[in-house]
Structures are given as C-alpha cells and as structure tokens.
From TrEMBL:
<comment type="similarity">
    <text>Belongs to the 'phage' integrase family.</text>
</comment>
<dbReference type="InterPro" id="IPR002104">
    <property type="entry name" value="Integrase_catalytic"/>
</dbReference>
<dbReference type="InterPro" id="IPR011010">
    <property type="entry name" value="DNA_brk_join_enz"/>
</dbReference>
<dbReference type="Pfam" id="PF00589">
    <property type="entry name" value="Phage_integrase"/>
</dbReference>
<dbReference type="InterPro" id="IPR013762">
    <property type="entry name" value="Integrase-like_cat_sf"/>
</dbReference>
<dbReference type="InterPro" id="IPR050090">
    <property type="entry name" value="Tyrosine_recombinase_XerCD"/>
</dbReference>
<dbReference type="GO" id="GO:0006310">
    <property type="term" value="P:DNA recombination"/>
</dbReference>
<dbReference type="GO" id="GO:0015074">
    <property type="term" value="P:DNA integration"/>
</dbReference>
<keyword id="KW-0233">DNA recombination</keyword>
<keyword id="KW-0238">DNA-binding</keyword>
<protein>
    <submittedName>
        <fullName>IS4 family transposase</fullName>
    </submittedName>
</protein>
<feature type="domain" description="Tyr recombinase">
    <location>
        <begin position="347"/>
        <end position="569"/>
    </location>
</feature>
<dbReference type="GO" id="GO:0003677">
    <property type="term" value="F:DNA binding"/>
</dbReference>
DNA sequence: GACGCTAGGGTCTGAGCACT
DNA sequence: AGTGCTCAGACCCTAGCGTC
C-alpha cells in the first residue's frame, strides 16, 4: 500500500474501545509505507456469528508505543489522563467511544463507524490494497465520514444511495471496498462465485480496468452464454484456474462465438449430444469472426481465440468439469484449421516514404512542443532535445521503440573509427548487440548524453542506468514509457501544417499524406525499405535488424505495385517476338494479353485463355511465333542453353536416335538466336537503361 | 511452408495521481 | 475540490520461433 503525499513512512491508527494496556487508549500499529498490507493481513482473521459476521484482531497485532509526544494535547493518552483528573476511576471504553481521534495527514480512523461496519471496512481496505497504486488516507476519511449513517456494506442498494453526498473519488473507493466485502462474505457463506451467473472478476483476483464507459467494477454476465453446460464450464474454469485478464477475455470471446454458433443448431443444449459437425460450426464462427467495430479480425487473433476456446473444452474433458460433454466434441487438428489469408497485393507496406521523412525532418523544431509528455520534469529545451534524439534514433537505426527507449546510458562504442550502438534485443532476448551507426547519429546521441548527465540529479534514481530514464517516481519501468514516445510523436505529426504524400489530385495539387501511418514502429519498416531500395544485400540487412531468419527481414519491406509496374514498363518496351522484331505494347495490354511461360510471355490466345495450361505445340516456346522472350530472363536462358547442350552430349553418348539429337540441336539454335537478338538490342540502348 | 504458440508492440481510453 | 497529466488495461496486431 503506497501512501499519498509521498511520505516514506507512516502510522495507521485504528482506535479501539478495548485498550490493551493502561495508559494507552489507542491500539496502533506502525508500518513503513508499502508494508501496511502486512498489518492489515494480520487483522484479517474473521469469523461468522449467528447473527453477524465480524473480524477478530489477531493476537499477532503488535501494540506499540504511541508515536505522538505524550506532552502534546493532541495525544489521546494525554487527553485520557486529563479526563481522569475529574473522575479518577473513569472507564476507558465509554470515554474513548466519544473521542475524536488524533489524526495526522497520513492517518485515518474507523472509530466513528458502528462495530460491524468498522470491521467490514477494515477487511475491504485490506483486500483493496493490491488493486491500488497509492492509498490515500484522505479518501478513507471522507468515506468514513459519509458512511456514518450506514449499518452494513452488504446491502442491495447502490453506492450512490448509500452515500448520496459523496464525491466521485469516494464512491470509487466505496465501490471497491463493497466489492471486496461482498466477495468475502459470499465466499464464506458458500454462495458465490461457484453458482453465480454474474462473475466479479476483480474479486476473483483479476486486476483489470474496464473498456470505455464502464466505471463500475468489472463483472461479466454469463447469462449471455445460452448453453447452460458451456456457461457452467466457463464459470468453473474461471473460479478454479483464476486466469489473467487477457486469457479470460480471449476465452470469453471464444465462448461467446461458440455459443452463438451452437444456438443455430438443434440439440446443442445437451452436451452429451454434441457431434463433430458442431465443432466444425464453432470453428467456422471463429474463422469468420469480426472485431467489435465490425471489421474482420486478424488471423492471429482468431487463431488465438480458437486456441483458448478449445483449451477450455480440453479442461472440461480433463478435469471432469464437463463430465457429460460428448467425446466427439474435440478439435480435429487436420480439418479445424484457421487458414491465414493471402496478403493484399496492393498493400505497399508500412514504411513511411522517404519524401515524407524529409518533411518530418524539416519540422523537427516542432517536436517536443505543445502537449509533449514529461513537461513537469524537464525544461522545454531539454524535452525537445530528448524527443529529437529519440526521433533521430528511430529514423537512423530502425530499432523497435522499446529498444530505443531502453538504451543504456553509455550506449556508444568506438572501435577502429567505427562507432557502434550497443543495445538489447528484448524481443529475441539477445542482449548487448552492436549496430554500426553514422557519425551524425552518434553526435546526436552524444549531445543528449551530455545534457542528460547534468539532469541526473533531478531525475528518479531508478533510471540512472538508462539513456532515456523514467521521468517520475511512479513509473513502473526505469526507462521512458512507450506511450510517452507514441503520444508525443502523434501530437508532433498532427501539429505539422502540411504533409504531402505521393501523387497529385486532378488539379495537380499534392495529395495529403495519411498521418495515421506515422508511428514509432513504422520507422523500422522505413529503415528496412531504405536499405532494400539502396541495394543492401538481404543477409546484411538481416544482420542489421538482428533477425534470425531472412524471411522475417523480408516481411519488413514489400515490392510495391508501383515498383512492379515501373519494372514492367521498362521491360515491356524491350519485348521482342521470336524473330527478334520488337513487340512493344502498353504494360496493361501486355499483362492482359499474355501469360507467363518459361523465360518470357506467351500471347497465343487459347493458351492465354487457359492461363498458360493449354499450349497447342507443347511448350516449344523458342520456336513459337507467340513467344515473347523477356530480357530479364537472359541469364536464365543462357543457363538453359548450357543444360540443353549437356543433355545433347548425354544423348550422343547413349547412342540415342538421330531425331532426339536433332531436336536438342534445334532447341539450342532457337534459344541462341533469341539471346543473340536480345543482346544486340540491349547493346543498342543507352547505358542507363540496360 | 503451414500452423500454432508466446512475447510483446500500437493505439485508444479511463483511472487516478499530482498539482493548484 | 477541480483539473491536467501520466500510466496501465483492453483489444488487436506483429515478430519470432518451434513443430510437423
């Protein structure tokens, strides 16, 4: 339990009407900041009586010396001694029940509450402790004030009705405490959650917040799952396995989809009657699942939903939680697959085009202004310098945002005049990697490093080892959070007045670039695309990006349709017929009227109509009038000629029939003529176009 | 190469901390 | 008590890698 007002240690005081020793009218426990929960844990032993349930303070709860000076008129001990001056034999209990407790800003008292409510609140606060980052005694004091007229928290009325004058923050605290108390009471009496159709996820240990709009503690109404057996299985699994929030959400999504699909089929309310076809129906529903906004969900997500749903079914079979479940209701790995869709041909990848990056560079002076994150810790100039350095690193190194943010404070290394960036590959768990960088990139880092050294005294010590340290003591990681970078980049990009993309409108004006395509990770794609366009060998780029497999590197950049068209346009102008006569055509006409055959295209109509599978002369292309050899295949054709020569020699050695040798010779001659003509035409071209 | 799993990133949004 | 800022959860997605 953290404490507000940044106090390093504090004292929680529970005033009791049963003082344990003479002269001490308050039972109190000292605790250091975050360890209050240990104290509360020791108080958590409670029992149920016939008419009410209450907590019992454990004997391990220590009574310690009052930290308030006894000379102080605020100290209850001192006040009690003063009280006894008039009736020397006055009892402590009646007196203490009427006394306002002494409270420092970091303390609260439950004394004003009736006894049952006092123990309920205490238990609730103990349970609520792990759900909070910082515990605010002031909120508890307000809650206690507003609860004074209440008898018990276990009541059907809403929080607002219980404390109509409370502020939003107090009602939030009250809601948490009531959730915890209700869950504890229900668990003790054995009424929930094993039988409830409304699951309280927080009471089940999930520390989760809710999607937009829902402010109440998160509950899930299982009554939307129409099949009682499926509802029961999900409830049992949740209660017994206590899944995390994400695991539960995916499983629930799978169950919802399955329930909807099964509801369309007769007899699926009886788990024993389920068949193989029912599994197929469930898989079909997941295979075509949509996101909540109506768009098709991604393949990996749908796969994950299916995986979680069938893990639940397996749990039912395995654990006996679904004893009646038909043995036929299992996934068939061979047939119940969720295939990955083909990538869209027109998709041009996620790289930010270089002209757009140049426009971003031109507006670098705006980065870190406006709503930049971290204004409370850093001066405007320092903030700008930090974000500028982050941008340069993203742009020049192609590293993932988290890798840039978590760079070590001393991340530069110079060997043989080559400067390298030392970084950690979190994703592949390979650390202390080295990436060669340019002098200008290194200079940008050094400039920030020098300024960062001067700032260290004003920064939280947890981030001392990092180049971009956490800026507040609340941060859960020692380095800057990814959302800082993402949100500041978003605000910067939105603040740039004009950002032109590629192409123009009908009036010739440049088209605006879609700003949503600019985000931190997109610079990694740009880095890969930049290297690919510059001709960096794939294996070198793989090393630079620290990928294990080349296929991963290839996924980062794509050959855009435009680049393909450029290539087709250039080559289409040099297509020749089999006599070597130029046979130029528009790229579209050529694509429409031809079909790919070995080493070029075929324009024979019946073969084109059959998509290349119906050659009337059995693919004797070199001698065909419809053959359009493609200059890009020149090296391959020459290799093919060599193979034909080798085959002819083999045939001669085998003393093959004369027509076999003649056929090889004719093919070789035909392909030689094709290459000869193409080479002559290419030689006549300007050097730049070859 | 298809499939499936795990770890973790991008983005949106609300909770709640910190400051006034 | 009001308000702006910070951070973490939800949801969906990508990357990396192992298995078949």
């Amino acid at each position: 339990m953290g404490l507000a007002a940044g106090s390093a240690s504090a004292v929680g005081v529970l005033l009791s009407d049963h003082p344990s020793e003479a002269g001490a009218c308050c039972r109190q426990v000292c605790f250091q900041g975050a360890h209050a929960s240990r104290w509360l844990s020791s108080v958590a032993c409670w029992r149920l009586s016939s008419s009410r349930w209450l907590f019992r303070v454990s004997s391990s709860t220590r009574s310690v010396r009052c930290p308030v000076s006894r000379a102080s008129s605020c100290c209850p001990s001192w006040r009690f001694r003063e009280h006894r001056r008039t009736p020397p034999d006055a009892a402590v209990a009646p007196w203490a029940a009427q006394q306002p407790p002494y409270l420092a800003p970091h303390q609260f008292s439950l004394l004003p509450l009736p006894e049952l409510l006092r123990w309920e609140v205490l238990y609730g606060l103990q349970q609520v402790d792990p759900w909070l980052r910082i515990f605010e005694p002031a909120q508890v004091r307000r809650m206690v004030r507003d609860l004074a007229e209440t008898g018990t928290l276990i009541d059907g009325i809403r929080d607002q009705q219980m404390c109509p004058r409370s502020t939003v923050a107090v009602l939030r605290m009250l809601g948490r405490v009531r959730t915890a108390v209700r869950a504890g009471h229900a668990e003790y009496t054995g009424t929930a959650p094993a039988q409830d159709d409304v699951l309280d996820l927080r009471a089940l240990g999930q520390r989760s917040r809710t999607p937009a709009g829902i402010r109440q503690p998160k509950t899930v109404d299982l009554r939307t799952i129409r099949q009682p057996w499926l509802r029961g299985l999900l409830r049992t699994w949740t209660v017994q396995q206590r899944p995390g929030a994400d695991e539960f959400a995916r499983t629930l999504r799978g169950v919802e989809l399955a329930s909807r699909a099964l509801a369309q089929r007769p007899g699926t309310d009886d788990p024993a009657g389920l068949r193989y076809d029912d599994v197929t129906a469930v898989v079909d529903a997941i295979r075509t699942a949509l996101k909540r906004d109506g768009e098709p969900a991604g393949w990996n997500y749908r796969m994950s939903i299916a995986s979680h749903f069938f893990a639940l079914i397996d749990y039912g079979h395995r654990s006996g939680a679904a004893d009646d479940l038909s043995a036929a209701f299992v996934r068939d790995p061979a047939l119940h697959r969720i295939p990955e869709q083909e990538a869209n041909e027109d998709e041009i990848g996620k790289a930010i085009p270089e002209p757009v990056i140049r426009q971003l560079d031109a507006h670098l002076h705006l980065l870190g202004l406006g709503r930049a994150r971290g204004q409370r810790t850093l001066a405007p100039d320092d903030l700008q310098l930090m974000y500028r350095t982050l941008y340069i690193l993203l742009r020049d190194t192609g590293q993932r945002p988290l890798e840039v943010l978590s760079l070590p404070r001393d991340c530069l290394e110079t060997r043989n005049d080559q400067i390298s960036l030392i970084w950690n590959n979190h994703k592949a768990r390979r650390h202390r990697r080295r990436l060669p960088i340019t002098t200008s990139t290194a200079q940008a880092i050094r400039t920030w490093q020098e300024r960062r050294e001067q700032l260290q005294a004003s920064l939280p010590p947890t981030g001392a080892d990092y180049l971009f340290p956490a800026l507040t003591h609340l941060a859960t990681r020692p380095y800057l959070h990814t959302s800082y970078l993402g949100e500041t980049l978003r605000d910067w990009v939105d603040s740039i007045p004009h950002l032109h993309g590629e192409g123009t409108d009908t009036q010739g004006n440049p088209l605006p670039f879609d700003r949503s395509l600019i985000y931190a990770y997109a610079f990694r794609h740009s880095y890969a695309q930049r290297h690919a366009d510059a001709g960096t060998p794939l294996d070198v780029l793989r090393e630079l990006m620290d990928h294990k497999s080349v296929s991963t590197t290839q996924r980062y950049y794509t050959v855009s349709l435009k680049r393909k068209r450029d290539a087709v346009t250039k080559l289409a102008a040099h297509v020749v017929d089999h006599h070597g006569h130029p046979s130029p055509s528009s790229e579209t006409a050529y694509e429409l009227r031809s079909v790919a055959v070995p080493y070029g295209g075929c324009t024979e109509p019946s073969n084109v109509k059959a998509a290349g599978s119906s050659c009337p002369i059995r693919f004797q292309c070199a001698g065909c009038g419809f053959y359009r050899p493609d200059p890009s295949y020149l090296p391959a054709i020459e290799q093919h000629i060599n193979e034909l020569r080798a085959d002819r020699e083999t045939a001669q050695a085998m003393d093959a029939a004369e027509f076999v040798i003649t056929a090889f010779t004719a093919q070789i001659t035909a392909y030689e003529q094709v290459t000869d003509r193409m080479q002559r035409r290419l030689a006549a071209l300007p050097v730049a176009e070859r």
